[in-house]
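WARN  no MSA supplied for this record, continuing single-sequence
INFO  ligand: guanosine-5'-monophosphate
INFO  echoing inputs
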Amino acid sequence: MKAQNSEPIARSPGRIFVISGPSGSGKTTLLGKLLKSRELKNLLERSVSFTTRSARRGEKQGRDYFFVGAGEFRRKRREEKILEWTKYLGYYYGTPKDFVEERLRQGKFVALCLDTAGAKHIKRTYPAQAVTIFIAPPSLEALRQRIHGRGRETVKAEIKKRLGMAGQELKESQGYDHCLVNDDFKRALAELKGIVLKYKVNG
Ligand code: 5GP
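INFO  complex generated
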């Protein structure tokens, strides 16, 4: 079954855009806008990950994440429903396998917001389809302010941990296919759109 399905994926014109960036870099907002753009509306879809962290204010089950318990997450891994997974600041996050592979078989574009480990994993698994994009914040101070503005993460320890991760993540940005700085939202969005549209067959 696996071998039968893997060939169409290897030759698929579909693409996986893996977007990474420190928490607060604005990657989720940029991706949200990109998904609404006229040129990509019927081609690009965002994959919704499973996570064991709890929902932030304003986040919705099934739209932002599938919020699950640790037991359910483990079961999904055992059943091979998860393409890649990571542990980020004590919580599990995983990409749904069927969703991504179905879109690739259909020749569609999928966007994933993943940490740097996830981006490497996807690049190894789908070398012909994966395009990695790193979104950097204009500065660490801007990042600190954005993280501060988020509901439940105003807990000091959480902010500190996320800022600590940001330094490491920025170091790893060099391995990405594309890197853009989100200092001006409009410009960053145009740049991101330009990257994705380059892969659209027949313009
Ligand atoms: P947050 O808690 O800020 O939503 O996400 C924390 C980090 O986990 C972010 O870097 C986010 O991109 C990443 N992430 C979210 N879902 C997944 C996933 O399914 N796999 C991996 N590897 N990283 C993920």
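Residues 23, 49, 53, 84-86, 88, 93-95, 113-115, 117-118 surround guanosine-5'-monophosphate (CB under 6 Å).
INFO  checksum written, moving to next record
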